[in-house]
Design brief:
By secondary structure, this protein is mainly β. It contains six helices and 25 strands. The strands form six sheets. The chain has a six-stranded antiparallel barrel. A five-stranded antiparallel β-sheet has the order 1-25-22-19-18, with no helix packed on it. A five-stranded mixed β-sheet has the order 8-17-14-10-12, with no helix packed on it. A hairpin with a 4-residue loop joins β18 and β19. The longest helix is centred in the middle third of the chain and has 16 residues, at 155-170. It is elongated, with a radius of gyration of 24 Å. The two termini are 31 Å apart.
Amino acid sequence: MFSAYSVLPATGRGAVRLAAVTMVSGLAAAGVLAGAGPAAADGTAQGRDGATATVNGLKVYGTAVLDGAAGEQEVPAGLFEMSVEGGGTLQTYGVDVRTPTQEDARYHEVPWSGTSLGTNPHAGRVRWILQNSYPQVNDLAALAKKAGVRGGLTEQDAAAGTQVAIWRYSDDAEVRAADPQAERLADYLEKKARTLAEPDASLTLDPPAVAGRPGERLGPVTVHTGAGGATVTPPADAATSGVRIVDGDGKAVTSVTDGSQVFFDIPDDAPAGTAELTVQASTTVPVGRAFASESRSQTQILAGSSQSAVSASASAVWGARGPVPALSAAEDCAEGSLDITAANEGDEMFAFELVGTEYGIAAGETRTVTVPLQEGQSYDFTISGPGGLEKRFAGVLDCRTRTGESEDGQSTQILGEPTPVTAGGAGADVNLAETGGSGVTPLIGGIALGLMVAGGATLLVIRRKDAGTRG
């Protein structure tokens, strides 16, 4: 299925090492990639921090005209609505006009670096548009006056004009609103837009994984959130394992705020094992946060949020001897890759195998293996380690906006059939922002490069980081 042409020792000196060049044939290993096994915990490269929501469809929208190689195409343009798991509602605009938004697609809050916004120099202007237009500004008379729109704006005009302005920056698209009032608003927003910084996550934990020995406090894990407070859920087996979640003084923790630091307190006699804590809160998600799907449905960017349920998790692994790896991963759209980071907090070298090549991470060392992926490429595999450690990383690399026509030469379906709305649109509810093993045990087994295109070549790069870095 694959053959390695060149290998460099994982323990050699240097910041960057070429580890292997691997050829693959088609998707012959898809069954291996999908077979994570029942013991594998759910997860993705970016940890599923923040809000998780399902798209309900377009709720307030007008019509836009998209220019392309196939000529002009009319597309719906406006606000989507999402239902948050655990409670809450989000409003979003689309990013990547030529990618369809799939009905009932499940989305996760992600950093810009995991989407096309991460490599777009105009992403900050998109956030400015969101903060200075509908629905954040729901006084449509004032918005119309500021934009020089005679005759005023309807909610449909405001939503369509805002979406068109966003597409001009997010996709560099030749697009205009069909309605003259909406087009004037789009022109105003495009002209006035300024660069704003990426907003903070609604809730995240740093680092997402820690490791150490029994009898130690593993951490700290720092809470970052805009919520006024959050609850901490200890490991599911805490009553039997004796693992506690504590603060720096060793006191049990059940609630936290932004900046709080928590630790996994591991009993002295605990056998090698793993544990996970979860932090949950209710808060408004910051305007401008990106939402990516599990199925390459059109990337969304947040325009409004009710009080919504958000959560984040962190894991710990420990052992009295041998390698003790903390594992995490992240998508990097700038490099077009998935970065898998392992920090060995044990007293022996941590050896693992990746696509037929063995690597070694010395005690106290942190390394990152970079796996390049094709745009739109899905991945799904489980990382196993000592002490029953199993982590699943699954997702799809969605880093570029589509341009032109589809591969079969037909115009790409833009958004599918939108949900009908009445002439009055969403009415007063539209502005949601105002509502409330051993040293040689393989770490990664059964991974095949079936996740690469037929006959494609992949470079696996391993990088050394400081021992304190968690990627």
